[in-house]
Amino acid sequence: MPSLVPGYEYDIFISYRQNDNRSGWVTEFVKALQEELSAAVKDPVSVYFDVNPHDGLQETHNVDKSLEGKLKCLIFIPILSQTYCDPKSFAWQHEFCAFNSYASEDSPGRDIKLKNGNVASRILPIRIHDLEEEDKNLLEKETGSVLRAVDFIYRTAGVVRPLRRTEDDPRANLDKTFYLDQVNKVVRTIKDLLMALQKPAGQEATTVTPAKLDGVPISMRKRIAWLAAALIIAGLGSFYLFYFAGYGQKLDKGVDRSIAVLPFENMNKDPEQDYFSNGIAEDILNHLVKVSDLKVKSRTSTLQYKGTLKTIPEIGDELGVANIVEGSVRKVGDKVRIVVQLIDARSDDHLWSETYDRDLKDVLSVQSEIAMKIASALEVRLTADEKADMQNQASQNSTAYDYYLKAREFYSRGSGDRNEIENALTLTRKALQVDPSFSRAHALMADIWFTMSAFGFDEKTWVDSVKFYSDRQFSSILPPGAHTWCWLPFSGTWET
Questions:
Q1: How far apart, in Å, are the Cα atoms of 211 and each of 87, 207, 215, 225?
Q2: Longest dimension (CA), the chain
Q3: Please, what sign has the CA dihedral across residues 187, 189, 192, 195?
Q4: Helical H segments across 122-168, by residue range
């Protein structure tokens, strides 16, 4: 992938000591950085990351020639550890010092004036350890400026280590920093630098420089202008024919919009929270199913890929789909972060990605928003009815929705287990008590009652119950203060 600025090999070069990636910290950071970049920068950002030390640059290689192209990048990110700032270090000598020298002589310069008038260096340090004073002095002497780094450090009593993406107790960090917040800071700095490098402050972007026009006869310029105008008119005419006269719709049918939504990763790493990440993914799938132009794989087809190590192209080939949606969910208190990516299953390229930071009470609306963004990225033209269906929320009450997700998780894994089914029924009842007009909870209750036929209930009881809750699913919204009744089969009572 070429750089955003012509003449450069990469936008970003990641420099690190191979020992600092034994735990996979650098690999995880680069993955998180790329996710955030794809959500914050419109154009794809190219990143050079020597992930495999056996295939990468070694001291035995012709380092100068090998790095000559790779170091010709816009932004250099060194991962500063306790061993990085070492004159004998390969990364320090052949990457950090080499880029500092190259950038200082490069036409934009090493220090760039941003759009807001501030100045930032094209060297963007990431610090994962406290540096020894002599290492800090060496670094500042090389750059001729004070060290300004984005810290990924976790400090507690007697502990100083790299900050991890998933912390057991993130609030215990004495620095009060969160991993994804720090990634966001890095991305904002990168974005500011890229914007300044693409269009320097105080200058207007030009597509043709005056030097290229020197010596071109005026008559030739007029011919070129007329030709350009004719091409524009022809293009507009084609656009009209394709999208207004119906030709475009016929051609559009050849686009493969088959899609699968993989189970979302539970970033809390707590099995008790799996129901929440599973529920988010399933509801996004349910919104996409409402779009007639999309061919959506069922949830049962994708559950097998939860926690899989298979690649996206492998999964896409096995499922027979052209597009894959994957994501992650982190819930901390009443805050939720949802990261969603739409990927071309054949090329493994990102088509769209976004990070959503919301209050728990707002998570209901974000699912339809995500589904609409996915449809837009696949260039699906939604009908008015489809838009209305996708914007329809499961419930207006986040507590009822949480009960519903837990109930659905119990029900989906219950099969013939009476305890699981009873848990599902109890939680669904709580959801309906909080929100009596919750249509999906009524539908789930009908499904649960249908399952009751396997537990020896007489046919009239479970058939009448299924009919009752199915009817309530499609009934109008109940007025405030209304109640719904629930039959508890294992205790043999009705409760409101």
A1: 45, 12, 9, 18
A2: 95
A3: negative
A4: 133-143
Reading the block at residue 249, the tokens are 């719709």
CA distance 248 to 252: 6
* Closest among 203, 207, 318 to 260, alpha carbons compared: 318
Residues of the chain with pLDDT under 50: 52-63, 201, 203-219, 241-253, 476-496
Token reading at 272:
């008790």
- Classify residue 96 as exposed, middle or buried by CB count within 10 Å of its CB (0-12, 13-18, 19+): buried
Query: How many Å apart are CA 456 and CA 415, to the nearest integer?
Result: 15
**Location of structure tokens 């390969």:** 90
What's the pLDDT score for residue 11? 93
* Residue 151, beta-bridge partner list: 127
**CA–CA gap between residue 416 and residue 487 (Å, rounded):** 20
DSSP string, 270-288: -GGGHHHHHHHHHHHHHHH
For 305-349, strand residue ranges (E) read: 323-332, 335-344
Q: Residue 210: is it exposed, middle or buried by C-beta count within 10 angstroms (0-12/13-18/19+)? A: exposed
Determine contact, residues 367/283, Cβ cutoff 8 Å.
yes
* One-letter identity of residue 451: T
Measured distance CA(125)–CA(77) in Å, rounded: 5
Strands 323-332 and 258-261: parallel
Match 């950090």 to its residue by tokens: 96
Strand partners, 76: 13, 123
Question: CA 151 to CA 177: how far, in whole Å?
Answer: 9
Residues 16 and 94: their CA atoms lie apart, in Å, by 11
Phi, psi for 350 (deg, rounded to 5): -75, 125
Predicted structure pTM score: 0.44
Distances (CA, A) of 103 to 12, 96, 110, 121, 488: 13, 10, 5, 10, 73
First to last CA, the chain: 61
The reported pLDDT for the residue numbered 419 is 79
Q: What is the pLDDT of residue 372?
A: 87
Cα angle 400, 404, 409 (rounded to 5 degrees) comes to 155
CB 59 within 8 A of CB 90: yes
